[in-house]
Amino acid sequence: MRILFCLLAGLPLLAQPRVDNVLVRMVPPGVTSLVGANMDRMKATPFYRKLVEQQRMPQVDRFAEETGFDPRRDVRELLYAGTPDGSVLLARGRFKLTGDPSAHAKLVRHGVYNIWTRENAGFCILDGSLAVAGEVKAVEAALDEWTKGQHKAAQPLLTLGRTIQPTANLWGISTGFASFLASALPKGSGQGGIDFSKIFTGMKSSWFQADFSAGLRLDLHGATATDQDAV
């Protein structure tokens, strides 16, 4: 695995990740993290076939049998959106429920949509090609944004990730992940060790991209608030 890590104070506008124009219109306001996956391209790679297709997943198998929907087969693009009020997973693909989820979930009506819920999580299939799942409050926020929002919530983050290749199999952009890394990574020793905790504490945003076409290549980038933080 090749890992390239760069600390950047700023880069010229080059590109940005390619996102389905329907999914991007459902991203809830206040989003602090986006993670996108092009499942069509990923499913064609040996990495995906080895890690997913050869693994037994009883819960996914049972869900597919009960509903007729198999996320390993029927999803072509995923977009995760994290907000301070919860997270949501947006999906494009082929969605046709053949089973009745009412025996396993509670129906909550939100506007013109049905949300099937269990405790504080739920999912909604809007039509044959669009679905959303996650914490109920976040699902409702995504549906509200889809029906009457301004559809601009994702753009600031996409601009931060402007150097992500449009063909990336998997990518992510965040303004809130650095603080988690700062608390989780070890601090440098007094013998010349790198203090990764200090590095990530100074980051105001980060993004990554992954390519699975030939093994795994991962690029991770971070932008610091000041030049001093990058040292």
* Strand order across the largest sheet: 1-11-10-9-2-3-4-8-7-6-5
Largest sheet: 11 strands, mixed
Radius of gyration: 19 Å
The strand count comes to: 11
Average pLDDT level: 76
**How much beta, percentage-wise?**
25-35%
Shape: globular
Helix content: 25-40%
Distance between the termini: 26 Å
Would you identify the regions where 5 or more consecutive residues have pLDDT less than 50?
A: 1-14, 179-185
The secondary-structure element order is EEHHHHEEEEEEHHEHHEE
Structural class: alpha+beta
Q: How many H/I helices?
A: 8
Provide the fold topology:
Elements: E1 2-8, E2 33-38, H1 39-43, H2 46-53, H3 58-67, H4 71-74, E3 75-83, E4 86-93, E5 106-110, E6 113-118, E7 121-127, E8 130-135, H5 136-148, H6 155-160, E9 170-174, H7 177-184, H8 196-201, E10 203-211, E11 217-224
Parallel strand pairs: 1-11
Antiparallel strand pairs: 2-3, 2-9, 3-4, 4-8, 5-6, 6-7, 7-8, 9-10, 10-11
Tell me what the structure shows:
By secondary structure, this protein is α+β, with helices and mostly antiparallel strands. 26% of the residues lie in helices and 33% in strands. The protein is built from 8 helices and 11 strands. The chain has helices at 39-43, 46-53, 58-67, 71-74, 136-148, 155-160, 177-184, 196-201; strands at 2-8, 33-38, 75-83, 86-93, 106-110, 113-118, 121-127, 130-135, 170-174, 203-211, 217-224. The protein has an 11-stranded mixed β-sheet with strand order 1-11-10-9-2-3-4-8-7-6-5, sandwiched between helices. β3 (75-83) and β4 (86-93) form a beta hairpin. Residues 1-14 and 179-185 have low confidence and may be disordered.
